[in-house]
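Review this today:
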Amino acid sequence: MDIVLITTVIASLFLVIGVAEPLAARLRLPYSVILAAIGILIGVGAIFFLRTDLTDALNPVAEAILGLPIRSNVFLYIFLPTLLFQATLGMNLRRMLEDWVPILVLAVVAVVVATLSVGYALSWASALPLAACLLIGAIVSTTDPSAVVSIFRSISAPRRLARIIEGESLLNDAAAIALFGLFMGFVMLGVPDPSLADALARFPLLIAGGAFTGWLAARIALWFMALFRRHELAQLSISVALPYLAYIGAEQSIGASGVIAVVSAGLTLNLTGPGRLQPQAWTKLRELWDILAHWAGALIFILAALLIPRLLEEVRVADFLLVGVVILAAIAARVAILFGLLPLLSALKLSPSVERPYRVAILWGGLRGAVTLALALAVTESFRVPDGIQRVVGILATGFTLFTLIVQGATLRWVIGRLGLDRLSPIDEALSRQVVAVALQTVREDLARTTENYELSHDIVRSEAKGFGERLEEAVKTAEDSADILDRDRITLGLIALAGYERDTILVRLRERTISARMAEQVLSDADRLIEGARSDGRSGYNRAAKRSVTYGRAFRAAGLLHSRLHLSLPLARLTADRFELLLSQRLILRDLGAFIDGRIRRIHGRRVADLLRDSLSRRIDAVETALEGLRLQYPGYAEELERRFIRRTALRLEEREYATMREDGLIGAEVYTKLMQDLDQRRAAAEDRPQLDIALQRSELVRQFPLFATLDEPDLKRLSRVLKTRYVNAGDIIIGKDSTAKSVFFIASGAAEVETAGQTWRLGRGEMFGQMAILMRKTRRTEVRVITPSTLLELDEARFRRLLGRSATLQEAVRESAEKRGIAPDDLFADADA
């Protein structure tokens, strides 16, 4: 075939891609539906001109279109890895984990249920062998997210709904293709009735092997990309190779799922890439994959749609009945999952609730697309599949795909509108009115200054000002009409705006490299959690999310146990260093939010709301400062190193800005600017390296700073630092419960605790201890000790405490003072201890 003609056809396809998007927006239809329609028309037109006697002039073009090398391997090995990999890179994984139960149910359980439902329904309604029916069920069980997500984004549908559908479609491709491979093997081997247990038994191996292959490939790729830190084009090239090598490696080397391998590689890169790559390199990588996925998604739809006329050439009347069976069985399976299993899991507190409108949208949004057609094409190409089965598989998969695209796709926007998912909530409506009024007032002030600076004609200014003033008056009146909004709602709106501004500030700081890429995902995730918390539960939800961002998590506690029990300090050192940097980043961001409250929020929501938000912000700053001060006291040398690193990075950012300004002003040429930036990049790479934290050394320094241990000599201090155990506790944790027997004494290295006994309550701070009374008096006391801030405690067992007490006069005096505060005679206390 003429290479010029093929090139012309491919270039024309890209022209179609460019035209399809504005056409879809004008017709208010999903982009993928328009692409499929255009592809079908092109395929029908090519067949028509090739067979008609009207003219032979277009025969070469028709032959080139129909002769394109469209095979199932093209879809599965070229386009599919691109789409899956980009989808994983674009996901907010930490937010998606909050809905991991419904996502996994829809992505795995729903695929299995749909496969079985369609398979057994077809087996009952036709003479096909069960293996072929289950094969068809696996083919039609995978959904395509592009049409649905594009609609959601165009109408500002709830983010949670889009996240659930994106997560489902990402993982259900893997599940469906894995099942497809199993049942395809049975069909090619001529097994009419496969054992379902045998089929599903191979399923975990496919998933585990693919997940490991993808993870390993991503770790190797990240190592090379970090090695080529100063060569962004090299990093981009490695990222392009990663999904294809992972897919081929899993499929051809170990016989695992290539789809799972690509998803695993993408997830690994998504989670660890921002911390290993420079911010601008990560941004360019995401942009590159957005473009590649856009082209791949469009081409896969057009090329797959070109095949539809050929797949339907041998359709019979009875086939329409079987297509109807497939449609009913697939929808029934999806209804059972969405309206049966998910509500049951929510009632059992095993899954977050998915609102009924969301479930209806997910049901009707289960469109099938290019993956379904590609799998059907793979069946029709296989010479080991009987001809009769090839024909039926192609027709049923194609017919079902057309139904979802034409019927569901064309009506999906209407369904979403009927469900009310395209409308703002009452709170958001009120916010929009307030924002418009304040924005127009600001515009009027800026416009007045602009007209004065440019000395414009007074008549023109007066005429335009009149029209603008009328719009401003209408906006202010509309905002005042919503004055009956409850203060609680105004506070919620203010908190949402504050959290949104915090997220924007983080992105600015990240671009300026004031915040390291290592911390970027964590602080952004915390900001997203603040937004969602304020939306769902107002002030209390915001405060819970803020508290969570400074508390010690489960990973921290597990690392503490590894350090104290097994003397493995690396995990604890890494998490402590991360916590240091996270708290420094939070403090930097929170300091910038006060001006936003005093400016924007005060003008929109009034002084009272602004004062309440100021109060919430002050408490957040205090919590961060308390947690940071505790770490600084515990690791003073390390805190100093991190702050020095921050100053160096800030200086480099300011230096880069000065060079850019001089370049724009023409003070330096391109050659000088390039040389200066190369030197700057070398110094910046050195500043990015975080200093190492020595946990054991820092604990020894911490013990030496305790006033209670001031009289101990150097050998005793070293021995004490080795036997003391470090415990990291969150606010609200109970260290000593009522009626419990104390077996240890605790020293507060950082934070604060509250002691309650005999109806009295008092607080202890850094340098003080608790638990000593119960040990020395040798009896159970009704005392409860609760930590009130994230704290670091040093724990010493009873026997060592008694030996230490005998050697330390300072410790004896501290015990006496503590006993006097609680109304206990010190002499009696030590008499009991001596006894």
Notes: The radius of gyration is 33 Å. The first strand starts at residue 725 and ends at 729. Residues 103 and 242 are 26 Å apart (CA to CA). The chain has four domains: 72-419, 426-481, 487-635, 711-834.
